[in-house]
Amino acid sequence: MKKNYFDYSKEELLDDPRIRLCVLEDDRAVFLSMADEMEKIITENNHAGKRTVLICPVGPVGQYPYFVNAVNGKSISLKNVWFINMDEYLGENREWIDSCDKLSFRGFMEREVYSKIKEELLMPREQRIFPDPKQISYVPELIEKLGGVDAVFGGIGITGHVAFNEPSDKLTPEEFLQLGTRTLEISPETRTVNGISDLNGAVEAMPRYCVTIGMKEIFSAKRIRLACFRSWHRAVVRKACYGEPSPSFPVTLLQSHQDIKLFITDFVAGL
């Protein structure tokens, strides 16, 4: 009987994954690699006189201090760079939570990224984008206007979600990959994991709704780079790389992407 991929050793995991894996020493190395790729793409486009369009997360966030230090230390201009953030929490009224809320992704990016970059290097405010439940079509229309996305940077959630694209048992893989920017209800599993990490276990205080970019926007990007460094990522990575493509675990649908890579820690690779 074929061995369950959840039980794969590091050697078995790396033998024939359907998604390219880059195993790094620890969390720091993962975040530094993410930051280095962001910097490299922007620098190459700047030298070529091209704009850069990146889809970025608030989770993982460990890459941002390294990125900010590189931008400031090397005087890398972001004036021709667009950051499109993946998602944001919504209140019961289906509108953005307040940016002052400690859970707000908009607030995080302002406090920990934009406010720390030298003003002469920072992109204009209109190039710092979040999906808006009041203007659902804005992000996909903007991406088309800008000529596409250079790279998606993010992570993988406990349900296999990328951004907040939660699993579905009602759609075909083709239909799921066509899902665009939208609002949706967050799964109980995701709320539980996020409640543990962000609110010390106060799951009932976690928002129930979000706005997210879709799998369509993610899959259409030239590159996808995802970071996996938590203990439960051991199972997530194995399913992502060896599970059959299915909307029931959305990241598996990215196995066929032209240029996708997972940055994982040696801890995640092992068992």
Descriptive terms for the model:
3-stranded antiparallel sheet; 10 helices; alpha/beta; 10 strands; 271 residues
Q: What does this entry look like structurally?
A:
This is Glucosamine-6-phosphate isomerase/6-phosphogluconolactonase. One of its GO terms (molecular function) is isomerase activity. This protein has one domain: Rossmann fold (3-Layer(aba) Sandwich), CATH 3.40.50.1360. The two termini are 21 Å apart. The chain has ten helices and ten strands. It is α/β, with parallel strands linked by helices and 271 residues long. The longest helix has 21 residues, at 27-47. The mean pLDDT is 97.
Q: What are the SSEs and their pairings?
A:
Elements: H1 10-15, E1 20-24, H2 27-47, E2 52-56, H3 63-74, E3 81-85, E4 87-90, H4 105-112, E5 128-129, H5 138-146, E6 151-155, H6 173-177, E7 182-185, H7 188-198, E8 209-212, H8 215-219, E9 224-228, H9 233-242, E10 260-265, H10 266-269
